[in-house]
Design brief:
This protein is mainly beta. The chain has a single domain, classed as Calycin beta-barrel core domain (Lipocalin), CATH 2.40.128. It contains two helices and ten strands. It has a ten-stranded antiparallel barrel. Strand 3 and strand 4 form a beta hairpin. The radius of gyration is 19 Å and the shape is globular. The chain starts with a helix and ends in an 11-residue tail after the last strand. About 15% of the residues are buried.
C-alpha cells in the first residue's frame, strides 16, 4: 500500500513539474528583422491548417483567406475560413498596436480583449474564444504562437484549453507569396 502511495506521489510530482515547464516569449532572442504582425498582415495572406483533438487526431482541416488593412496603429484582419466539411465561417480582428510594440485585439467570438506580444521571430497572442459546438456555446482559452520562417511564411501553433486542460491544438501555415491564390470554395 505504501509503495503504491509513493509511486502515485512521484508520478503526480513528475506530471506537475513537466506541465509547469513551458516556453515563454523571452526564450526567443532578438533578430535582425523582428516579426511584427502589422508588417506581415498588411495585405492578402492565405493559410492552411488543421485542428487536432487532445489525442492528436486530426478532426478538421481548413484553408483561410486573410485580408489585412491598416491605418496608422489600427488594423483589421478579415478572415474567411473554408473547412473540409463544407462550413464557411468569418472572423474580423480589430487590432491596435500599442506604444510598447504589443497588440490588443477584439473579434466577434473573442471574449474580452486579446493580448499579443512579440520577441525576435515569435509572436504570442492569448485570448478567450467562444465556440459553437453542436449548438452549445463553450469558452476556451487560446495560447496562439506564430513563428516567422522568412518574409513570406509563418507557422502557427495554438493550444486550446478548458479549465487549464488542453483539449485541442490548431496548426496553420501562412504564405504571402500565394497572393493570387484563393481557398477552394466548399
Amino acid at each position: 500500500m505504501i509503495n503504491k502511495l509513493i509511486k502515485s506521489l512521484v508520478f503526480m510530482t513528475t506530471c506537475f513539474l513537466i506541465s509547469s515547464c513551458s516556453v515563454v516569449l523571452n526564450d526567443y532572442k532578438t533578430v535582425d528583422k523582428p516579426f511584427d504582425i502589422k508588417t506581415y498582415f498588411d495585405r492578402q495572406v492565405i493559410a492552411w491548417g488543421m485542428i487536432q483533438d487532445y489525442s492528436n487526431k486530426v478532426k478538421r482541416r481548413f484553408c483561410v483567406e486573410i485580408n489585412g488593412t491598416w491605418k496608422d496603429e489600427k488594423g483589421v484582419l478579415a478572415e474567411k475560413f473554408y473547412f473540409n466539411d463544407g462550413e464557411i465561417s468569418y472572423r474580423n480582428w480589430q487590432l491596435t498596436k500599442l506604444a510598447d510594440g504589443s497588440y490588443t485585439g477584439t473579434a466577434e467570438d473573442v471574449v474580452g480583449t486579446a493580448i499579443g506580444k512579440h520577441q525576435g521571430f515569435a509572436f504570442q497572442f492569448q485570448y478567450e474564444l467562444s465556440l459553437n459546438i453542436d449548438g452549445d456555446i463553450t469558452q476556451v482559452t487560446m495560447d496562439d504562437w506564430m513563428y516567422q520562417l522568412d518574409e513570406n511564411r509563418v507557422m502557427n501553433k495554438t493550444s486550446m484549453s478548458k479549465f487549464g486542460i488542453k483539449v485541442a491544438e490548431v496548426t496553420l501555415f501562412f504564405d504571402k507569396e500565394t497572393i493570387n491564390q484563393s481557398c477552394p470554395s466548399a
